[in-house]
């Protein structure tokens, strides 16, 4: 359950190609010129260096491009060959390449995916794909998430504080699936109206109020470290931020 929010721009398919083009351009600009040494340095994504982030983004772009190619024929195809194991093997393999090759293939993959979505019109947005048993529109939103979030994971020119309001509110919507059962999260971004997230039905056992900058709350929900402080309370007492459920899987059906 979400409190009512005004219609967001990403819910209009006519806006999605522009959002993807902007996000792709920003990610490629952030990665441009990285050396072998820089790629080997840790990213802001725990356990991954920058080469792994690039390898992952390339894989997502190619997988999403393939989703649309099959959807155009009225068919579906697995998001990743050989499932999660195949995804992990491909990331490991691609991450070992030299910087020039990594950046060239990243540019090709991002540009191709953005161009394919730019060609989607009308009812094609509702064509089925295997990604979360969804539609082409769901795929566009997924790619938007990947491009924006991972551009920040490089730990270079962009951070989560650069995420705009529309993107943050969209993450609140998508990441409701991470809210623990029996807990209502009342998000209170500074200077904005509160928004309550509840994963599932029924009356929650407790309500946790999370207060802070809009971008910091979104970063925490996305599994990233908030760059400012967040304050959590329950029944007016200070509490720890609740442990979130896993990120919704690309290969899981929609709830």
Automatic annotation (TrEMBL):
Example GO molecular function: isomerase activity
Q: Quote any Pfam family the record assigns.
A: MDMPI_N
Name the UniProt key words of this record, in alphabetical order.
Isomerase
Highest taxon above the source species: Bacteria
The chain positions of domain Mycothiol-dependent maleylpyruvate isomerase metal-binding read 20-153
Quote the protein name from its UniProt record.
Maleylpyruvate isomerase family mycothiol-dependent enzyme
